[in-house]
Amino acid sequence: MPEPQKPLDFLWFIPSSGDGSYLGSDDLSRPNDPEYFAEIARAVDRLGYSGVLIPTGAACEESFVLAAHLAAQTERLKFLVAIRPGTASPSYYARLASTLDRLSRGRLLINIVVGGSEQELAGDGIFLKHDERYDHAVEFFQVFNDLIHNGHADLDGRYIKARNARLVLPPAQQPAPPLYFGGSSDAAIEFAGEHVEKYLTWGEPPAQVGEKIARVRASAAKRGRKVSFGIRLHFIVRETDEEAWAEADRLISRLSDDTIAAAQEVFRKQSDSVGQQRMVALHNGRRDRLEVSPNLWAGVGLVRSGAGTALVGSPATVAARLREYQALGIDTVIASGYPHLEEAYRVAELLLPEFGIGQPVAPLRNSFGEKQVFGGGGHGGNVRTAAAGS
């Protein structure tokens, strides 16, 4: 008999560059307000998600600072925070990581983001070609890991030089916060097999995801290692499939062809990310071929860089699609939806129960045991059902 699938670990997303209800439109948009991010974090902390991904980039709030802000307002939530090699020294990042892990009592997860835009990287003072960035990252994490695990490091490398580097205060987690990473190029696959605990893929069709997982497993096996796997997806979940697809159409209903063309041109000119190229190839900027696999919709990627696909459908439908990814080895889902506060509730209420995920703290009782139904919130309270009095 096949082994039973392991439980899925669900994380949510903090939209630190802003949020909204319509892609490609300012209608009902929300600015990047730290208190709004805190609202989302407090909600997902109660709803059953294990953590949040905080993105990095020139358009985003700085991820370590924002994580510290949110950690002070949550209890259980873990924070997947980006380290971009080259924007600071490995010694400085080791101190940042250790301090945040200590302040949050062991709630730090580290997301390695090597970067996929030469233009943005140049603004951060990084002038390395695509594969060379991974050579640089290998040396960076040699020093970073030595510090995080042992408290000292020395390296006379081609890119990184550290002489008697020290980290006095170790992180709370033992031996260290885990390393997450995503990348689709050959160089990225080899880096993942050697250095990370969890490999992340964007939401490609299952066959393509399975092919990448196999490559990462082989890369890790060559080094006597094992890697676990996660997937980054948007979700449009409604009570019926028809409602969900109608919501997908609504999400891009105010998105013009000119806006799509401008976004796709930026992706082509400014990104050397293989993963981004694979996202674009799913739809090539066309509205008429957005369901790229059953219930996998690429409409988000018409204007959003990075993760550009959503699972669309009823709870049962979306759960069935997720179980296909589980069967390939996916054990972690990093989820999001527009707008992120409301959709965090919707996914938690409709989809998470399909996987046996409930709120971490039992809700307070709202009666002394009588069966009741919601009565609209009036001053008389809820309504006792006939069955309760019989």
Give an account of the 3D structure:
The protein has 390 residues and is of the alpha/beta class. The protein has one domain: Luciferase-like domain (TIM Barrel, Alpha-Beta Barrel), CATH 3.20.20.30. The chain is 39% helix and 18% strand. An eight-stranded parallel β-barrel has the order 1-2-3-4-7-8-9-13, surrounded by seven helices. Helix 1 runs parallel beside helix 12 (340-350), helix 3 crosses helix 5 (130-150) and helix 5 packs parallel to helix 6 (186-195). It is globular, with a radius of gyration of 22 Å. This is Alkanesulfonate monooxygenase. InterPro entries: Alkanesulphonate_mOase_FMN-dep, Luciferase-like_dom, Luciferase-like_sf, SsuD_RutA_monooxygenase. Keywords: Flavoprotein, FMN, Monooxygenase, Oxidoreductase. Pfam families: Bac_luciferase. Belongs to the SsuD family.
Order of helical and strand elements: EHEHEHEHHEEEHEHEHHHEEEHEHEEH
Residues in helices, as a percent range: 25-40%
Shape, per Cα inertia axes:
globular
CATH classification, class level: Alpha Beta
User: What share of residues are in beta strands?
Assistant: 15-25%
Give the class from helix and strand content and strand pairing.
alpha/beta
Largest sheet: 8 strands, parallel, barrel
> At the fourth CATH level, what is the homologous superfamily?
Luciferase-like domain
Instruction: Assign the CATH architecture.
Output: Alpha-Beta Barrel
Q: Which radius of gyration do the C-alpha atoms yield? A: 22 Å
Distance between the termini: 47 Å
Number of strands: 15
Integer tally of domains: 1
> Would you give the CATH topology?
TIM Barrel
Number of helices, where a helix is a run of at least 4 consecutive DSSP H or I residues: 13
Low-confidence stretches: none
How are the strands ordered across the major sheet?
1-2-3-4-7-8-9-13
Give the rounded overall mean pLDDT.
92
